[in-house]
Amino acid sequence: MKRSRYLTTAKLLRWLAGMVAVAVSAALATPGTASATEYFQNNTTVAGFASSRVSGEPLAEVEASWHVPAVLDCSLGDYALTAVWVGLSGASDPEHFSDSWLPQVGTDSRCTGSAFNNTHYAAVWELYNSTMDTGEQTFGMTISPGDLVHAWVLKYGQSSDGSQFFMLSLTRTDAHGNTETDQQPVATSRNVDLSKAATYGWSVVETKSEKGLAKFDAFDITNFLVSPAPFPPGLNTYVFKLVNSNDQPLAETTQTSGTSWRVTWKARN
Predict the structure, then answer these.
(1) What pTM did the predictor assign?
(2) Each residue of 145-155: pLDDT tens digit?
(3) 192 burial class (0-12, 13-18, 19+ CB within 10 angstroms)?
């Protein structure tokens, strides 16, 4: 059964062009211009990475792929959580993604609160800004650990009253090659500060500190792309290590290629 109705030739060509741009951006940098920089930061909410353009127009699109991580231990009978997200943020700095607005889409792997090692997996989306929060919403599709997921966030317009419009899309492919896609259009509330443009595209593993980080096998977030394509001088990259309040690592992020990153579980909380 195939239900992937939204993938187009034009989008595939744009995706391939983005991959080429990521690969060559460093080689094409012009002497005397600002250069891309990599930053490493501890964060008490997420592990993962974010990118922002060094110069030029703001980001309007971000996408990435991963295999849904399996939860390995729910023996404590609580609600430990591992959520993987792709999102765009209008924040003024990467430490505060939700300062302005934040549309995101991804998968949720969690313990169900049962003492019988039960787990739950879902495809999820959320829109947050300073005046509203949808909370975590679920798509109708069934998600299983190991499914290949491709998530995509696109800003496609804005109105004169300050509303901004996004499409959130998620495609999953199961072990038998069956595909399914869901999409959710969302809009920020009116009077959003338009001076805070889409400055960061990101993909992260998130937990809620009071619930703890559900234990998972190391997995890769691949094919991370942002648009407009990062022509010289390229992208600033921010790499996050998830830590607790004592700065002890809970999850770490390491780069495996120019567009791929590995996230490794270290501790629960």
Answers:
(1) 0.81
(2) 999 999 999 98
(3) buried
